Amino acid sequence: MNRSLSPVHLHVSRKAPVHVHVSTSPVLDKKASSRRMRASDWVKASTSKGPWIPPPGRTTRQISTSGGATRMSWEGPTHRLDIEPGYNADGTCLHVSDLNSGANGSTDIILEPAESNGTHTKLDSLRAEVSSLKNEMERQKNLRELDERELEIRAQSRLNSRGGGGGGKRMRSTSPVSKLLAESYDAEQVNTNRESLMQTLTETELDLNSVNRQIDLLKETLRLLIRDKSLSPSRAREATDQTCVLQERLSELLLSLKTAKHLIRSQQTKESKIKHYTEEIESLLKKLTESEASVQSFRRELQDKESLTIHSQQLHEHLNEKEKELTELTMKIKSLEETLSQNEFEYAKLKSEFQTMKRKADLDKDTLKRSNKQQKDKVLKTEKSIEALNTQVDCLISELDLERSKSSRTSREKAQMESDLGCLKNQIKDVEKSFSAVSAKLSQRNREYGALQIENDQNKATVVSLESRLQTQENQLLSAQNTLSDAQGTIAQYETLLRDYKTQLDKHEQELHQKEQEIERLQHESYIDMEKSKIAYQKQLSEMEPIADELKAATIKLQDSKERLAQYEQATADQTRMIADLRIKSSSVDNLKEKLQDKKSEVKTAAVKIELLEKKLADSDKQNKDLLLITSKKEELIQQLQFKEEQYIEEIASLNRQLDSSRSDARRQIEDMKNRNESKERSQLARIADLEAQVGRVNAQLSQMQKTKDEVERKSQSKVRELQERLDQSQATRKSLESYVNFLKSSYSSIFNDTSSPVWKSPLTH
């Protein structure tokens, strides 16, 4: 502390009370005492004064001041005593003149009870401040312990919650490490402030020790005063020096307490900042947990992608199996073609037999009319069934595309596809049976024309079964479409989750911003590629499925059968012409011809539809080839992305290791700081206890000084009374001397006739 401060000089009137603030600690008003005794300066006998006549040892005189108050002055050969009886209103306050020393080397000793009361109040205030400092230190210590316990509990809970994550610790930002280092830096600053506070406390202890020493010296001086009723100049100077030193030490104590308060306030503000930093760290840790959860969801999505790739491989295998089954179906279709050729041969035979039947038709016109009507009904039904089959084939093609996209994701659809193939096989078998039934019916027509009705009924039953089977297939395709829409919805949800994850990474991970940009770019490209691959893969599946080839073969067979039907119809037309020649006589033959022409036009429209279907199948083949190329490229891109993801995972693992090491270092530093703070707080508490003991001692000494002061006041009052009596006696002697001197003067003037000489006054009156 700076002890070489310049003194403060003030010019204040006697009546104005003075209130002094020494280093922001207020100086309390002092209590008023009954009287004020002031020892005058010790002076030597001066030769400048007039001659002392007569030369007795002691004289007294009364001096009137400018304010109207009287002051008693007692003067001897070696010293002089000035006494002010009575006390003004300003006697209760501390004057600046009481703190300054004399100009000619002599000092003023102020022996008043107000001063001791002031020192007592100062020491009480110091004691209260020390106790408040101790309470604040204990409160801060308790708060720190609670905060540390809360932080430890939260850290343990977070470690327990993160222990089961496995891969969740890989994506963590390094921002909490910087926060922990900043907290450690703030803790170091707090430690420096505590060190400065300790220095101030040590200084206050030294000041208190010095004050105790000064009090001891004052005690000794007071004891000497009690023993020696008269003060020597050396002792008076020592007493004044001791009072000055006491005042300086008290001011230094007040300054040190002020600095201690300032340091405690700064420490409290810094501790509040540290609490704020801890809250920010907790919020960052919460954000980290959220980011880790999003990372885990992203990894789950990657695992879903891998499972999708596995499903695609399984679907490829399933497609190969279907191709094998289609080859088997083609073999069966070839066998069916052979049977159809045999049926054609039989049809030729039937034509010859039909010619014979024409000859017999003249006899059986009524039966032929009925049979023609039945044949017309059958033809209409067959045309309707053909149209329904064409529409069903179109629906089957679209539904098969959807089933392929569905089979690329779910394994359950495989069983459904296999069941569909089984149904198709059963349908083909039914068709074969129907062909055999048709051949049987044709043979029966040659034998019996009436058996055609029974065969038509059988064909109707087969058509109804086919329609029911097609309806079941349509329902299955609708379910496949629904599953596809659900899968698309889940894909959209995954896309939204990925976007949310990107935004969170942009906010919370500034250091890994570049890597995140690369990941986002790759994800966007992969997303676009996935969408393209979905479309292309669906087309490719639709093209690569062997069912399309089977349908092509079926359409070819249908064309052949239609051509054969056309040939049959041509033959029937020839037969109808022959019959028309025979039926010119009858009006019903013309109606039959018109109906046959209508049937021919319908057959032509069916042939046009078949040609359009063939063109569509060719386009689908081209699209399948393009999709194969696109899927190969996408598989390469997926492999590259997987390699990059592995690299990023390795980098994240290294970053997690660095984070763990930095956290362990930060924890060690925090533990060291805690130990240091605890040791310092213990030392502070011990010093505070010592200070309290010293304050108790000082209070005991002050009580003793108060007692000694009361005794000194009693003795001084007795001395003052004696002095007053002596003053009265001296005044009486002075008056007698003045009268004696005047008598001498008058006698001298009468003797020497010197009336112009002035009346002589003693120098005591001045």
Automatic annotation (TrEMBL):
GO biological process, one term: regulation of cilium assembly
Chief place where the protein resides: cytoplasm
Cytoplasm is among the record's keywords: yes
Ranges in coiled-coil conformation: 123-150, 187-228, 267-525
InterPro entries: Odf2-rel
Biased composition (Basic and acidic residues): 707-728
Region (Disordered): 1-71, 702-733
Gene3D superfamilies from the UniProt entry: 1.10.287.1490
Biased composition (Polar residues): 59-68
GO cellular component, one term: centrosome
Cell compartments where the protein resides: Cytoplasm, Cytoskeleton, Microtubule organizing center, Centrosome
Keywords per UniProt: Coiled coil, Cytoplasm, Cytoskeleton
Family: Belongs to the ODF2 family.
Protein name per UniProt: Outer dense fiber protein 2
Organism: Amphimedon queenslandica
Gene that specifies this protein: 100637208
